[in-house]
Amino acid sequence: MTRVKGDMSKRDVSVIGLGPMGRAMAGAFLDKGYRVTVWNRTPGRADELVAAGADLAATVPDALAASELAVLSLTDHRAMYDVLEPAGHALPGRVLVNLGSDTPDSARAAARWAAGHGARYLTGGVQASPPGIGQPGSTTFYSGPRDVFDAHRETLEVLTGTDYRGEDPGLAALYYQIGMDLFWTTVLGWLHALALADAHGVRAEDVLPSASSVLAGMPDFMAFYTGRIDAGEYPGDIDRLTMGVASAEHVLRTARDAGVDDALPAAVVDIFRRGVAAGHGDESATSLVEVLKRTTA
């Protein structure tokens, strides 16, 4: 199956990579009446989509030939290169929207690679799980050439809301990884708290109300300190790092007394102590951002 360029329209889209996210994306396009071409290394993953009206491309060049816009749902940029490099001759004139995860630097390198093959490139950072694709309330960060984003915004908004971050192709990846940084450290903190609770015979269900209350207060906490952090100001008028050290040490000792893995609270204590050693003891604990900006020797 191959369409010639003259047959393509803004209602054509190719989806390359059919993991759970790719299948959800292709399904959302089909639901909105798009002519969808799909490709996956394991063709069987396309069976339900083909039954719903998608065209299955036999090869990656066929998938690229079918649509100006190709949405990539692959693990990372290494996977993108593995899939697209052998099909480099089919890339000129195509728009690649990479919705896989990787680092900002690798996104910039991928954009240069695409340009070298005659393609335009947008980086995306999807803030949704597969069930959220095509549903209201989810958003995807995008970055890259503004004209490319504007030209395909309507199509991309079939998947989620769009949040354009700028011309630098690394910005969408950066915002995505910032979110993942916050998400995974929060999840790990919650799981450690539950392990600590379990060591004392307390169930996760019993912890939920108090844990939810702590997290519910975080937006106000961040809003209060954000302006100060941007200004590089960390006055100890509300909290002091030395108080934070004592609190973190209490958490560490509680974990050790309970026989719970102490790697996470030990890491927190280490960072707090480094902040004090750097002269921030009488400042707010938010001064630790200055410690975190620098790698240790």
Task: Outline the fold blueprint.
Layout lengths: L11 E5 L3 H12 L3 E5 L7 H5 L3 E2 L3 H7 L2 E4 L4 H8 L10 E4 L5 H13 L3 E8 L11 E5 L2 H11 L4 E6 L3 H30 L4 H13 L1 H13 L10 H18 L4 H18 L7 H5 L5
Parallel strand pairs: 1-2, 1-4, 2-3, 4-5, 5-6, 7-8
Antiparallel strand pairs: 6-7
Helix pairs in contact: 5-7, 10-11
Sum up the structure in keywords.
297 residues, Rossmann fold, N-(1-d-carboxylethyl)-l-norvaline Dehydrogenase, domain 2, 2 domains, disordered N terminus
**What fraction strand?**
5-15%
Low-confidence stretches: 1-6
Helix content: 40-55%
Rg of Cα set: 24 Å
Number of strands: 8
Question: What kind of sheet is the major sheet?
Answer: 8 strands, mixed
Average of pLDDT: 95
CATH topology of the largest domain: Rossmann fold
* SS summary, helix count: 12
Rough outline = elongated
Give the topology string: H per helix, E per strand: EHEHEHEHEHEEHEHHHHHH
Q: Between the first and last Cα atoms, what is the distance in angstroms? A: 56 Å
Top CATH class of the largest domain: Alpha Beta
Give a written overview of the molecule.
This protein has 297 residues and is of the alpha/beta class. It folds into 2 domains: 7-167, Rossmann fold (3-Layer(aba) Sandwich); 175-292, N-(1-d-carboxylethyl)-l-norvaline Dehydrogenase, domain 2, CATH 1.10.1040. The chain is 52% helix and 13% strand. Helix 5 (104-116) runs antiparallel to helix 7 (170-199) and helix 10 (241-258) packs antiparallel against helix 11 (263-280). It is elongated and about 60 Å long.
